[in-house]
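Q&A log
Question type: sequence-to-structure
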Amino acid sequence: MPTVFHLLAGCADPGGGASHSSDGPYVSIPEQQLLRSVPVFGGTLESAPAIDGFVSADPEGNQVVRIVGDTVTALDLGENARPFRIHVEDATAWVTLRGSGELVEVDLGAMTETWRTRVCGEPRGVDRSPEGPLVVACADGPIAEVDDTNGGELLRSKFVAPDLRDIVAVGDQLYVSRFTSATVLVVDPRVLITVEEHVLHLDARVAWRMRKDPLVENGVAVLHQLTRPVVLVLDPTPPGGTYYPTAPPPGGGCGRLHETVVTRDTELGPPDTSHGLDQVRLATDFAFGPARSVSFVSTGAEPGSPGVVEYLNGLTTLWGGTSGCITGEGIDVPLSGRPSAVAYDEQGALYIQTASPFGIVRADVDTTTVTATRGDPTLTAPQFFHTAADASGVACASCHPEGLEDGNVWTFAKPDGTVMLRRTMPLAGMLLSREPYHWNGDLADADALLADTYLIRMGGGTYDPDLPTALFEWLDDLRPVRALPLVPPEEVAEGEEAFVRAGCADCHLGDAFTNNEITYGPLRVGSDPVKTPSLIGVGSRSPLLHDGCAETIEERFLPPCDDGLDRHGRISLMSTSELNALIGYLRSL
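Response status: OK
Response body:
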């Protein structure tokens, strides 16, 4: 049965989210499926000066860990908790539980759970609002307010935009990042309404972590990727068939298709993006240390490359001058898993957290300070998924962060000289039921996809013959992000009926919402034959359609994304109310 919350529908999302709002105060939020496979989330380690130690979230092991010196204490949070972001005040920590949709309060002195409250479908970031309550940013769209002085009472939850990530109190406002689009929303905490949207960079994608700017009182720093605009070719013979540029892309930086940068977003002027970080691959967390140092985890580090890179005077050298590429100091410590989080203690010592398996290492000590007490063993699949290929510096997770997608629309040059636009496809959501793979369905199975995409397109090395099967079984257990329908349950049911009447179910059928077949007739003027994609999680994604034509679900039904000839569903037969119900239903998938 779904859980019903008092949820207030906000105003239209300025960055491509919902503009269809509920007329009433109740929105039905479906129960989430189990989060079985856990990708690297990044950013799960926080300093706790009041206890002279650290607090770590271990999503694979469903536990919160307190580290004080060499003493380690773990608190079991139960199956499918999947803890993520941590907010610390004195000897209390609040942790978002992405698997169960809850916020939990932990007494760090006793290492006991004080209370937990269901806040949304998938909570991500947490902070203290300037208005007093705790605030939680959710992947499914709302910001939830929680009263920690009254047993974790959920005060209100208001829809803001899909794919929210971090939330940081800045002066009298809330800064809220969106994961895929790497934009920052400025939200009025009194009414939880977006008042501004900041575009960090025209090529920005995937905001892994947002922190308060240590140099400016009213500002944030956002760790994100840049995806450089290049034309890639479809010739299957390397080097012409690579998914990475054979010449440096425009825009400066380190000359790679995916750059790791930090953008400062303050009240003092337009966003200021750092230089490219030379040794860093797929950074999922960063931390500001004493004496202006900045450290980054290189989650995608190739074998033999440092898992953490520190810029000793980074607050000075990372910004300023023309866009360039700078080198930091590689931290050479033994790491058994993929580096996923980093933090400094009060004395400036650097601590590193790993995933698959969980562990914590102090950077100036050659032995592991903390070992996993309940985490998964080292798994080949997640290790492979998060490790960059040597030739390109690109990992699977570079384009598919957390097994989702980066929202990028790629330009491919076809053999006849024309170009083709294709958006990154999501992996999460019944992947094994979606053979054949790729936009044109030309890759029959997991073996074919890795042989094409990893070996040729990404420039990767050889792998064990059993890897494709293990990788795709792990990917099949990833959980997609389900958005809020923003309409009452009865209207969602009407939308499901409209879905059938419009002919959507002719192609988008079954549990995976795809017949896995190729549509050879153009869906609109000028479109190429494409494989029917799955609609699982479509309400939380942007842009939409194979070529990224639509920024929102609403735009998918408008010109130029729909030419009005009913070639992509019998849309002309639907009334406005039916179309609104259909949009609500699509958001719920």
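Response note: Helices lie at 314-317, 380-385, 396-399, 446-457, 467-476, 489-501, 553-556, 576-588.
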